[in-house]
Amino acid sequence: MDTRDDDRPTGPDETEAGGKPPEMHCPRCGAAVDADAEFCTKCGAPLGRKSSKAARKAWKHRIPIDVEPWAVKASEAAGRVPRWIKIGVPVAILVIIAVIVALSVVAAGHTPQAAVERYLETLRKADYSEAFEMLESPGGKFGTKEFFTQWQILQVENLGSLRSFSARERKYRNRFFGRLLEPNPEEGSIYVCTLAYRKKTYDVNVTVVDDGGSWPVNSYKLKLAEGPTRAVVAPLGARVFVDGVYAGRSAEDEDLKEALSLKDFPDDLSEAVDYVKKLLRAVDKSVLDAKSFLRNLDKVAEDVQNTLERLQVSGISWQQVVDAWEQVVSESKSFAAEVVRMVKNIYWIFGGGDDGSVRARYTRVQSGLELQNLPEGWHEIRVQMPGMVPDTKEFYAPETATLSLDPTNATEAELKNMLQTYFGVRSNAYFTANPAGLSDVAAGSQLEDDLARVADLAARGLRQSSDLLKLEYVEFKVLSPRVATVETKEAWNYVIYSGQDPVSIVSNQKNDVVYTLRREGGGPWKVIESKTE
User: What's domain 409-532's architecture?
Assistant: First the structure.
């Protein structure tokens, strides 16, 4: 047998030509391995007695041979961990993740936006009792569950069912006037809600305030009313109903009534002190009115902005856009009327247009009442008074509602009959110089003037013949339950006699006259004043 220089035997393990050791195969997986390898490079099985005890343990635990000793120990420790822990810890982690996701889902349903949408969806389903429970009730006539339910039913009867809605947080800037004058609320957030009923669509502001609770189940309440709504109603004493609920009687604006007295300058120091106090109150009232007008301007600008935003949203019908513009126009008219009233009131305070008559005293008032806690949105206001034609109109709070009643045909007939009776009695008194019967048709300053005229004619031995050629009724106004005015266009012939001889003749004298009439209790109307225009 041939031997090599190093006297080692040759055989199958001998190096092949070229210096490469012969191939060996893993007894476990059959993979080719180097002759001097201690482990199979494919499956990691030990290949001979030369493999160390650590290597065999590494194989047993499927640990690569080049792993650091500390890692081997850690692996051995992990191998001793109970099976229930190995399974339980991942499961617990998954449960925790699931709980966090679930709580996040719950929290998403307890946000201010979600609270508003939940309320609107409840209205759409006509569950008014549940919807009312979501509100922060302000109390008063317009804060009860009964009113809320009746109001919702009335809207459906007049506007059709609530078909859809949307809610978005209110912006405090707009394209027209920059930042809105109305400040951010001290508490809560304001959302603009678009309510699309079958016949009409309109916007309202809803304030969301915190009602306790903690994450993820925060609780919220909704506020539907912020500030009063003004109703300007003539005549005085008219009964006002809002959505079928009695709100009160139209009354004089006491602040304006006091301010009108400022045209009478004081005569002494004591009156001067009172005058200054009234002046300060009048100025303060004017400032409050100006603030109110600015808030109304805010509302108009906000409504214009909301309408423009609707134009940019798909799914909005043309009718809904028209409704939105109608609401803007309505509130714009209301704002313009407020400005006119303010200017007129200032004009009155300084004595403008005042002829000192009873009629002026009654007409130079702003009659009406403030409606406290009336929810923002669509409402129906009704005004009625005996002898007057009731008036009903819809309006959007907090827009000012303005109504003026007209006398019924029966009331007009009463006023006409009394005025014609007065003409006859007065003409007879002037012709006979006998005042009998004047007190049955006249009172107040008119009776005094007529008695003075009769006495003057009698003292001079004169008589006056009065012939009515033409009588046209221009306007009838009832200023209060007991005071009315009749505006006429008249043409008269007057002849003054001394004995049987005429001493003065006036033919076809045309007069525009406003007569003021009053009735006491249930008695007849009487003429208390006449002013030739």
Answer: Roll (3.10)
